[in-house]
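Weekly structure sync, notes
Attendees: PL (lead), two postdocs, one rotation student
Agenda item 3: pending single-chain targets
PL asked that the sequence for the first pending target be pasted directly into the notes so everyone works from the same version. It is reproduced below exactly as submitted, 500 residues in total.
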Amino acid sequence: MMMIGTLLSRVLGLAREILVAAFFGATRSMDAFNVAYTLSNLARQLLAEGALSAAFVPVFSQALTKSREKAIALARGTMTVLLFVTCVVVTLGIFAAPALVKIMAPGFDSSSHELAVGLTRYMFPFLIFISLEALTMGELNSLGSFFIPALSPAFSNLVFIITAPFFAAKFGVYGLALSVLCGGFAHFITQWLWGFKMKAVLYPTKPNLNDPDLKLVMKLFLPYAAGLSLNQVNPVISRMLGSFLQEGSISVLNYSNRILQLPLGLFVIAISQAVLPQLSRAKDDDEFIETLSDAIRFALFVVIPASLGLIEISNEFVHLVFVRGEFNTWAWGATSSCLALSMLGLPGMACSTVIMRALYALSMPKEAFKVTGFSVLSTAAFSLILVYPFGYNGLALAPGIAFTLSGMLGLYFVRKRIGRPLKIFTWRIFWDYLVALTVLDASIMLYRFVLPYNPDARLNIRALWCLGVIALSAGSYCLVTLKMKFNEWKLLREAFRRKH
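Predicted structure, written out during the meeting:
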């Protein structure tokens, strides 16, 4: 259900980037906006996809098994604490914007620095909306509601798409900052209103600081927040180093990352968010291992073919999506190469994201901190090693390598805690994937040989070309995996039966 809901939001997110690319291309003003947006958006993984979910969802899920009323009271008390904390962070962020921009983009000249500072101050209140959205999503997921929380980012992107042309025409790049705030509010209010339907609407109440569940949430939140704050260094690294490269380097990294977020958000984030309450409620180690194994395998089942497919057609797909208006030939080639290299790391990112949820469900904040710290150090090391010979391409490749290695480390910690092998992967699974992916790759090459992509063709013809290669390769992959009786098809059939 989360994958279905996420599909629309991710497609609209890509449409948002298409709109921005057409208006501003890959320019220094767009680099400044991306730096500012990254700074104001640090709470998304720290709160929406990280520490808050890690600390709140397991405690809330356990509280639900005892008393729904007390669990909802816990959520409302947590909302009060969260509002206070985010307001303090926003205030500090506005005052510290010059220093933050200097740290993130030391290679900016004075005009770019001033622009990034102004944009950062405009967008920092976005933290409040995205933090409240994170809490609401955690509550709704734990109550068994997945579709609306997954769909709500679509309203955010839709509001951005509707307002950006008007705001940008009047205020320039500052108009994008205003659209970000409007979209963030839409993101939160959609889920908040759904709370009425679930009879679990959130509003601030005086927190009971003696409540053991609230104490546990706060106790878990601090180490998770510390660890995931480190994780925010990853995008900072690429922007720091990118600020020393040629104009537009940060922008092309951002555009390629937006396409990467389509399969990552559609499949991986959806699966990891859905599996966290299930892992938290596992009755014993056997159920925990089975749930974790199914989640990792299912993530790879959809991510690996998506990675290979986008690597193969990265040049054509980027041309279809972005090449118009101010998006020139250089930006096309640079974004295509960044996309292909970043997609190599998508399977590792998928495994790492799901495994981190397992650490959260097992209440292992120290181990989660170590995995995150290792990821940051690895990203920094590989970025520094690869940026000199490969430029922005090296910055695109480094995070995938780091996430793959950190996923292995996280899996080691989970196995150590449980005390026995997890048996997630076998040689049989490896060979089955090799056969299925060979067929998929052959279908793409055949399609490109018989029907080459024409960059000068009309938009609808180019769109049909991309839809055709996706349909053919996905169809061949599905057919082969069905014939080879991949267990993921059994899981899908069982899920469909439960819904109908």
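Discussion points:
- The chain has a mean pLDDT of 84.
- The longest helix spans residues 249-280.
Action: rotation student to compare against the earlier draft before next sync.
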